[in-house]
Amino acid sequence: MDQQGPISPPRGAASGPGLRARLTVPVLAMCGTLMAVMQTVVVPLLPDLPRLTHSSPGAVSWMVTATLLAGAVLTPVLGRAGDMYGKRRVLTGALVLMTLGSVMCALSSDIAVLIAARALQGAAAAVVPLSISILRDELPPERRGSAVAMMSSTVGIGAALGLPLAAMVVQYADWHTMFWMTSALGALGVTAVSWAVRESPVRQPGRFDVTGALGLAVGLVSLLLGVSQGGQWGWSSPRVLSLFLVAVADLALWWWRQLRTEQPLVDLRLVTRPRVGLSHVAALLTGFAFYANSLVTAQLVQAPKATGYGLGLSIVATGLCLLPGGVTMLLFSPLSARISATRGPRITLALGAAVIACGYAVRIADSRALWMIILGATVVATGTTLAYSALPTLILRAVPAEQTASANGVNVLMRTIGQAASSAAVAAVLVHHTSPVGGALVPTLHGYLVAFGMAGAVALAACAAALTIPGDSAPEGTRRAKGRTRGARDGAMEGA
After folding, report:
1. Residue 436 gets which letter from DSSP?
2. Residue 434: beta bridge partners?
């Protein structure tokens, strides 16, 4: 049996001529874009939220941290649940939680309620891996590559659209209006999925590993909380050191138990295979390299002109600077699928990481002129499109169909850990390189260049990791076509 193929043939829901069939891919892509928009819309609000919610900046920062932590924990958990109980069912549940969180934000100004609501929205992080798994089950091989590439690109597209959209709403309307808009979009997503997406028959029945889910949650929360708050609390503070100690001890115990559980939450024997494990390593490194682009670009162009390098742009103008990168991700996703079809996803991933490194080289060459900043950021976004589109394809080829959602969930988790580490590393670099401007300490241009160099080096490491991934470069559809041709030829020879 071909390990790369689904257990059952693609269903007519995605390949037939009906309207629902034609809308399956666009609907899932819309949900992925909406997920990314939900994660970024709060960013323009962060400077004003302490005043609007009568709370401290530290408390407001938890509106971002809560989403990060919840998404990291729920992505592998919901991926496993999708493999067991139905991917569309779990996808719909994740979208409902995301929409409920948006409604709570629209109705309240209490910081505790807002943090809880943002944690609910973290469930949306599982939308992309679940959608990719649905596409594997529902689409024929010849359509699968381009659809998966598009689905992967929605993360960057939504982030590029969400920032300027939210900034304009915040500037010209009450901030609750933004969440009412996202609530309506979330409800539209739930309705569209319920109507256009059929439930996949590919399942892996069994008992859900509740203990494993709780153990993973404790370990990931401890790890990511320490990484995300280390700069604020102090890397050598008792709180941060205790969190890292708990994370190491808990995850080591969790790993030991998963290897001895008959139906584990995460199949670690599968994860330790080179094709899967190295793909996860490449995902972590790519997430680190990609995220520095958004973090540093936004701060750089908003820096005051008195710094000598800053452009003093508004948050709306900043979002528009990142918009070309989102458009590029939309345009280049078909190219990524084409490269993977002809050269294999391993080469696409390595090429994408190399392009990211080239983008940071452009940033190092000139980070004063606006057009050069936009060019460098767009090159990084182009490389990210290639890399992020190739990662799910690598996973699809390396795992059984009934474990697609959980395996892709772990891959997305590794990207999230990489992004959290990138945020902490960039913050540490910029804090170390500051100078007084107008009575306040601001990062120096040298600090930004060091951050670019660090991200570029990590991108080259991701390129090297990609090139070490074993496996052939023939696309899945080609392998099957060759298998059918060879079988027909052998049958003809036997008949002769």
Report:
1. E
2. 443
Contact partners, residue 281, CB within 8 Å, separation at least 6? 414, 465
Looking up tokens 């998963």, which residue turns up? 258
Residue 133 near residue 87, CB atoms below 8 Å? yes
Q: How many CA atoms lie within 13 A of 406 on its CB side?
A: 27
Distance of CA 181 to the CA centre of its chain: 23
CA–CA dist 434, 427 (Å, integer): 11
Structure-token pair, residue 453: 């160099």
Radius of gyration of the chain (CA): 22
Closest CA to 194 of 89, 271, 86: 89
Distance CA 102, CA 186 (A): 8
Structure tokens at 234: 């102090």
Q: Please state the φ and ψ torsions of residue 434, each to the nearest 5 degrees.
A: -130, 160
Q: Which amino acid, one-letter code, is at 400?
A: P
| E strands present in 187-298 | none
> Per residue in 228-271, pLDDT tens?
888 788 888 999 999 999 999 999 999 999 998 888 888 888 88
Label the pairing between strands 440-443 and 434-437: antiparallel
What are the tokens at 433? 């390189």
Query: Is the sign of the CA dihedral 34, 389, 196, 119 positive or negative?
Result: negative
Specify the pTM.
Answer: 0.82
Nearest to 476 by CA among 200, 151, 149, 140: 140
Q: What is the pLDDT of residues 431-443, one digit of tens each?
A: 888 888 877 778 8
Which residues face 435 on adjacent strands? Answer: 442
Q: Is 308 left (phi over 0), alpha (psi -120 to 50) or beta?
A: left
CA distance 121 to 101: 5
Rounded to 5 degrees, φ, ψ at 304 are: -65, 150
3-class SS at 8? Answer: coil
